[in-house]
Amino acid sequence: MQNYVSSFPVTKTKSGLTINNGTIATVTTDDVLSGGTAIYINGGKVYARSSGNDAMDSDGIFTITGGIVVAVGARSTEAGMDVDARTLKLTGGIIIAAGGATSGPAASVSTMHSVIAGSGSAKKIVHIEATDGTEALTFLAPASYTTLLFASSKLKANTTYTFYSGGSVSNGTDFHGLYTSGTYTGGTISSG
Asked: 44 vs 52, 161, 165, CA distance in Å?
């Protein structure tokens, strides 16, 4: 098990887990973040990767209102984000959840657009851009996955997006594979 954490402003009770700010990065073989009745992420940067289970698992509601969240679960039936058939509410931030499965956001309470895409390979970039060339996502997955959930204010209604696989990023900076800057080139169009 490998854990590394900096600026850890987390409130955890028997009933739930709340993250308001800071930077958290954890790699383990079990559930990385687990909430009994709820998980709330309101800001900060959170990276959670599990090689044997869910990256993030709430037995109740799961709400993200801000921040950057990269959740990578194991293959098979394990998920990037698992809310046990309850409510996943996304209203802000940039969210990536990859794994063998993922819970989908509830349209009735989520206020930002999202997409659930198919499989991808480890160390291979998935890139999503609008027809005008505006980048929505550039992500280098640390592990292969069956399902990828992406949600961000960069996704707009009534816009056509193209998915690319592979390629490279020059002059880029990233948060555990999620590129926040740089120039993407060289990918091939995929079905997403």
From this structure: 25, 28, 28
Largest alpha-carbon pair distance within the chain? 48
Predicted structure pTM score: 0.90
Q: CA-to-CA distance for 27 and 32, rounded, in angstroms?
A: 7
Instruction: State pLDDT tens for residues 96-146.
Output: 999 999 999 999 999 999 999 999 999 999 999 999 999 999 999 999 999
- Cα 114 to chain center, whole Å? 11
For residue 54, give the amino acid letter.
D
The H or E element containing residue 26 is strand 23-28
DSSP letter string over 155-167?
S-TT--EEEEES-
CA-based nearest residue to 49, from 157, 179, 178, 164: 178
